[in-house]
Amino acid sequence: MTDESHQNPSLGEAAGQFLAGLSPTEKNTSQPEIYKFIRWYGWERSLAGLTAPEVANYAERLSLSDTDYGEKLELIRAFLAYARKTGLSKMNLTTHLKAKKTRAGHPPTARQNLPEAIPLTRKGYAELETELSALKNKRPWLIEEIRRAAADKDFRENAPLAAAREQRGHLEGRIRELEETLKAATVIDNARKSTLKTNIGDSLLLSDLASGEELRYIIVSPREVDPTQGKISSASPLGQALTGHGEGETVEITVPAGKLRYQIKRIER
After folding, report:
1. Would you call 228 helix, strand, or coil by DSSP?
2. How far apart are CA 81 and CA 95, in angstroms?
3. Are residues 9 and 81 in the same domain?
4. Half-sphere exposure at residue 259, Cβ-oriented, CA atoms within 13 angstroms
5. CA 171, CA 131: separation in Å to the nearest integer?
6. What is the pLDDT of residues 1-55, one digit of tens each?
7. pTM of the full structure
8. Calpha distance 259→240 (Å, rounded)
9. For residues 264 and 198, is the Cβ–Cβ distance under 8 A?
10. What is the residue range of 230's domain?
11. Do both 207 and 170 map to the same domain?
């Protein structure tokens, strides 16, 4: 990198510097979301030219239906904070990367977040059932832990009791969320998919028509999103663009840098 590019790096160059300083585990977690952020504006776009309204607009466009919505924002905030701290950006853009506020400013409850019907792959449904069963089996153990900790009459400094009660609260909350999700779930049956059109549960091989890079994604419901395994939400911009298209077709996603164009090379079910 030349002195000039070091003083005024492109978004792609800044992202490379940021990721190079992370541990292998942190890099694997951060890279997909950081690269998506960079592609939105263009790899050659000057980092110094990135404006606060543009960053705020990106946050607005992120799908609130993704279960990892908050985590995505935190990964991008970490990159922007690095840019500010190292002098690559003169603006503190992290303050403009805010989540959408719900009505009346109250955070949504698990029930409010649930749609009328939640599409899940058969594998995803089974995984949630397994988790629910494991949590219910853990209940008796936690109840016994609370009973033992409560036997210590000095409640003022009874850290084990407080920890056990907090853990029980988390467990019961997750059990309720899983039960509501499974109750509202609609299982996507792969056997009924006789068409060659992309749908939830499909594994896709895409070709980035600009770079020639091949990408693999699995379209899943918002409840099953896992960037580390290439699982993208059907409600995300890319997921929505791909759904309903077949092999050989090209899809476009409009971003500030122009259009991202992908060709569907293969659909696997």
Report:
1. helix
2. 10
3. yes
4. 9
5. 11
6. 444 445 678 888 899 899 988 888 888 888 888 888 888 878 888 888 888 888 8
7. 0.43
8. 15
9. yes
10. 192-268
11. no
